[in-house]
C-alpha cells in the first residue's frame, strides 16, 4: 500500500478550505493551518455574499475554469447538504464600445454562454432599479448566482475534516522553508512540521509570508455599504446581483436579510493595506462620497444613507489575474494568491487544481495564463 502524500494547506479561507476538501477527498494526509478559523471576516471573504458569473470581464481563459467551478459548487452542495449557492442570474453593465464589454460579448458568442443583451429600454422595463447611461448595455448572465462565502468556507473545511484532514485553528504559520532532503518545513509558534508539499493560500497576507513573489500583489482595503431600497422591490421581484464597469466600477447584491442591497467599489477606489493585521475596519463618513454619487446617478431608488458598513481586504495584481501554480524554482510549494476581487466564484475549481498540483505535480486544467511568473493579460 502506498503512503499518502502529506500536504500542508496554509490558510483555510476561500481557496484553502476548498483545497483541503479536494486533497482529503483524494486520499492525501492534509494538515491545515489558519491564523483564525474557517468563516472569519478579517480577510477577503467576509460580507455574506459573493457573485458567481460566467460573464467574466477579463481573459476568455476563465471560461473553462468557471465551468469547472460551476460543477464543483454543485458537488460541494450535494456532499455537504448545504445551500451555498443560489442561481439568480447576474447583470453586467457597461459602455457597449468599451474593450471589456466587447470581449465579454465575443467570449459569450464563441463559448455559447447563456447571455441576453438588454438595451436601455428593456433594462428599464425589467429592472427599473437601475439607470443605464447613453451608449451603455446590460448583459443578463443566466448562469449568475449568489454564493454565501462564510457558509461555503465552513462547509468545505468541515467536509475536509470529515474526510480525515486536520486543521490547526488560530495557528499562524511564520515561515515555510524547503527541507534538507526534500519536502517543506512549516514553522509555527508551536513547532515545526515536515510535509511533502505546501499549498499557500493566505490571501491578503501573501506578502507577509512570501515576500518577493515574481508578480506584485497589491493589498487593498475594500469597503462595502448596505442600503435600503425606497421604492422598487429588489427581492420578491428577483433583481439579480450586478457588476458595472462604467461610469462607476462597482458591484452590488440584494442581501440575504431580504431588506438591504450591498454595494462595493473597484480596487482603484481603495486604500492600500501595508500591514494586514492592522486593517482599519472602521469606515469613516468621508469615505462614502462615491457611494452617494453612484446611488444618485445609477440607482436613485436606494437610500444613500447606509444602514451598515464593513471593511475587508483583497490582493490585486496588475493584470487582474491571480498567481496560480508552483513557486518558481520550488517544486514542493504551490501558491494561489492575488485573486483581484473576483476569485471567490472560482474557489472550488482552485481547490481541485491545488490538489492536482500538490499530488500529481501538474494539472490538465488550463491555468498557463495564471502561472506565478506570467505577466498575463487584462
Ligand atoms: C468585499 C469583497 C467583495 C468581493 N466580491 C466578490 C464577488 O462578488 N465574486 C467573486 O468571485 N469574488 C469576490 N471577491 C473576491 C474574493 O472574495 C477573493 O478573491 C477571495 O476571497 C480570496 O480568497 P483567498 O483564499 O485568497 O483569501 P482569504 O479568503 O482571505 O483566505 C486567506 C486565509 O489565510 C489565513 N492566513 C493568512 N496568513 C496566514 C498564516 N501566516 N498562517 C495561517 N493562516 C493564515 C487567513 O486567516 C485566511 O483565512 C470579493 C472580495 C472582497 C474583499
TrEMBL record:
One of its GO terms (molecular function) is sarcosine oxidase activity. SUPFAM superfamilies: FAD-linked reductases, C-terminal domain, FAD/NAD(P)-binding domain. The keyword Hydrolase does not apply. InterPro entries: FAD-dep_OxRdtase (IPR006076), FAD/NAD-bd_sf (IPR036188), MTOX (IPR045170). Keywords: FAD, Flavoprotein, Oxidoreductase. Residues 6-357 form the FAD dependent oxidoreductase domain. Its cofactor is FAD. It holds the Pfam family DAO. This is N-methyl-L-tryptophan oxidase.
Amino acid at each position: 500500500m502506498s503512503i499518502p502524500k502529506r500536504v500542508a494547506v496554509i490558510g483555510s479561507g476561500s481557496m484553502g478550505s476548498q483545497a483541503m476538501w479536494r486533497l482529503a477527498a483524494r486520499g492525501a494526509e492534509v494538515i491545515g493551518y489558519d491564523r483564525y478559523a474557517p468563516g472569519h471576516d478579517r480577510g477577503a471573504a467576509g460580507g455574506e455574499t459573493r457573485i458567481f458569473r460566467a460573464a467574466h470581464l477579463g481573459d476568455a481563459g476563465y471560461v473553462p475554469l468557471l465551468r469547472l467551478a460551476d460543477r464543483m459548487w454543485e458537488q460541494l452542495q450535494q456532499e455537504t447538504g448545504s445551500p451555498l449557492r443560489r442561481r439568480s442570474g447576474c447583470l453586467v453593465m457597461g459602455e457597449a464600445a468599451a474593450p471589456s464589454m466587447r470581449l465579454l460579448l465575443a467570449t459569450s458568442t464563441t463559448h455559447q454562454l447563456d447571455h441576453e443583451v438588454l438595451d436601455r429600454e428593456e433594462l428599464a422595463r425589467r429592472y427599473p432599479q437601475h439607470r443605464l447611461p447613453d451608449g451603455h448595455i446590460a448583459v443578463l448572465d443566466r448562469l449568475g448566482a449568489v454564493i454565501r462565502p462564510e457558509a461555503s468556507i465552513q462547509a468545505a473545511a468541515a467536509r475536509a475534516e470529515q474526510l480525515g484532514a486536520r486543521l490547526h485553528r488560530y495557528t499562524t504559520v511564520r515561515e515555510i522553508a524547503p527541507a534538507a532532503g526534500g519536502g517543506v518545513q512549516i514553522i509555527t509558534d508551536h513547532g515545526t512540521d515536515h510535509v511533502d508539499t505546501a499549498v499557500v493560500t493566505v490571501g491578503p497576507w501573501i506578502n507577509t509570508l512570501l515576500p518577493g513573489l515574481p508578480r506584485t500583489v497589491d493589498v487593498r482595503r475594500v469597503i462595502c455599504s448596505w442600503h435600503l431600497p425606497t421604492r422598487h422591490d429588489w427581492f420578491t421581484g428577483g433583481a439579480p446581483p450586478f457588476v458595472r464597469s462604467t461610469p462607476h466600477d462597482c458591484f452590488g447584491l440584494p442581501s440575504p436579510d431580504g431588506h438591504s442591497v450591498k454595494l462595493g467599489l473597484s480596487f482603484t477606489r481603495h486604500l492600500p493595506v501595508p500591514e494586514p493585521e492592522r486593517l482599519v475596519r472602521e469606515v469613516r463618513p468621508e469615505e462614502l462620497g462615491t457611494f452617494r454619487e453612484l446611488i444618485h446617478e445609477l440607482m436613485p431608488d436606494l437610500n444613500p444613507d447606509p444602514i451598515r458598513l464593513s471593511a475587508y481586504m483583497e490582493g490585486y495584481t496588475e493584470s487582474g489575474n491571480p498567481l496560480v501554480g508552483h513557486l518558481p524554482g520550488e517544486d514542493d510549494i504551490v501558491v494561489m494568491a492575488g485573486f483581484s476581487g473576483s476569485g471567490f466564484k472560482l474557489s472550488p475549481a482552485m481547490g481541485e487544481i491545488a490538489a492536482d498540483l500538490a499530488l500529481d505535480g501538474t494539472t490538465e486544467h488550463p491555468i498557463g495564463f495564471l502561472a506565478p511568473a506570467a505577466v498575463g493579460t487584462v
